Automatic annotation (TrEMBL):
Domain of life: Bacteria
Protein's name according to its UniProt entry: tRNA-specific 2-thiouridylase MnmA
Active site: C101, C198
Region (Interaction with tRNA): 148-150
GO molecular function terms noted in the UniProt entry: ATP binding; tRNA binding; tRNA-uridine 2-sulfurtransferase activity
GO CC terms: cytoplasm
Amino acid sequence: MKVLAAMSGGVDSAVAAARAAQAGHDVTGIHLALSRNPASYRSGARGCCTIEDSNDARRAADIIGIPFYVWDLSERFHEDVVEDFMDEYAAGRTPNPCLRCNEKIKFAAVLDRALALGFGAVATGHYAQLRTGEDGLIEMHRAIDHGKDQSYVLGVLDQHQLAHSLFPLGDTHKSAVRAEAAERGLLVADKPDSHDICFVADGDNAGWLREKLGDRAPNHGGAIVDDATGEELGRHTGTYGFTIGQRKGLRIGTPAPDGKPRFVLDIEPVSGTVTVGARERLAVDRLSGIKPRWCGTVPRRLEGTVQLRAHGGEHRAVVTTADDAVDIELLDPAFGIAPGQAAVIYDGTRVVGSATVSATVSATVAATQATT
């Protein structure tokens, strides 16, 4: 089969491409140029947007012995991922750009072009496993290495996309991947993993948003108020600098009466009000989801688990669906969940699908209402 291997310049995608070639596929490597000016997104060997990364990917392709090309998807990436990231934060939501990139770029724009060019699949270095279920559908499962599992950020893939995807590393631990890279003579064997958001060069999301949003933000400042008393505790320069559950960087001079730290409980982008309070007020036990993406058959009711952050734990949950709405009852309350985050739904190790969190119900508020 003709396989297009997406090569970021890191060790994982290089080994994935090598394995695909060793399995007998006719492999072509590509590197995605996601910025016309790579230094504006990322400097140093940290991600997927630098000239260094492109050169690392090209050298790996040469060692593997496969053709290599660079595809310029900078305009599509900026529109579908970067602009979406800014718009969501400006609206007081907390997006995950990695999911959006997988949905819109790697397994949409890239896959569409690959199929049009006669390729049968796109291979990436993501840590996830694909299996054929008893019903004949392609199932996506967590990787063997749970510490590196990336099924959460792949929870937006549908059956068509899964049927044309290859994840050669899903059955391997990361330490073994690095060892294999060294054995194959790949110079990226010891290259550090990428972290943070690839287009935020220094990892300072708030500073990056402040610079990029400018006058596009609905407000340039507002009050930070106490949830219990309504007292104004301070001022801020933009709601985009906050996210639900945030504790650090609030710059509140007045301590809480009990001496405990305060957390961001709510963000109102129109008025500019940021509400803070005790950690227990962050507990939620019910989520509403919109824009669902299903990996296979749409469940009407499922008792499974939900993951709410890329590196977060699982919460036991009862999931019900109706049309394009998803209701999630958390049997294990979660803390600090913000609208805009992705809720990825699992049945055991199998990824069922995902939805974007649109609203949350506080466990403490629900408990108070139930007793009054």
